[in-house]
Design goal:
The chain is of the alpha/beta class and 161 residues long. Helices cover 40% and strands 24% of the residues. A 3-stranded mixed beta sheet has the order 1-2-3. Strands 4-5-6 form a 3-stranded mixed beta sheet, covered by helices on one side. Strand 1 (28-29), helix 3 (34-44) and strand 2 form a beta-alpha-beta unit. Helix 3 crosses helix 4. The N and C termini lie far apart (77 Å).
Length: 161
């Protein structure tokens, strides 16, 4: 026979915090750059990140709203900075060498550059522009000047037989 108290009858069976939490916990270290925290939130689909110290102790919470305050820049300004500061100044390319589209901080780069190394550099630089949440790569190159990865031991062995 099961005996219920009055309190048991009045309390609905509620889920526990453990039952509704994201697991494993998605955290960010306090020293992590804000853009990296924002990318992590987007990739993992979370709206809040617990912030931990070197010993993995909770020191705070960062929210999307917190990050928006840091990164809020008009899309037009982000596009202008990519065209003028990255393409024209840093890479010495015409500002219209690549189509730059920005929507809600998401940058889409589309076009064809001469060398693959230029596309890699542009993508890396664009990710670091303040206000950029992520970069969509629709770039191609006429010449692939990136170094080839070393052959795997199995591949090297097969050719030596």
């Amino acid at each position: 026979m099961v005996v219920f108290g009055v309190r048991d009858l009045l309390t609905p069976c509620a889920p526990t915090a453990r039952g509704v939490m994201t697991a494993p916990a998605v955290t960010v270290h306090a020293e992590e750059a804000a853009p990296d925290a924002a990318r992590l939130m987007v990739r993992r689909g979370v709206a809040r990140l617990p912030v931990v110290d070197e010993e993995e102790r909770l020191v705070g919470i960062v929210t999307r709203r917190d990050l928006l305050r840091v990164f809020l820049r008009p899309d037009a300004e982000i596009g202008r900075r990519i065209r003028e500061e990255l393409l024209a100044d840093a890479m010495a390319l015409p500002a219209d060498a690549v189509d730059v589209h920005v929507l809600d901080g998401v940058v889409t780069l589309e076009g064809r550059l001469r060398r693959r190394s230029q596309t890699v550099m542009l993508l890396r630089l664009a990710e670091r522009v303040e206000g950029v949440v992520s970069v969509v790569d629709r770039l191609s190159a006429r010449d692939d000047d990136t170094p080839l990865p070393p052959p795997s031991p199995r591949t090297a062995h097969r050719f030596s037989e």
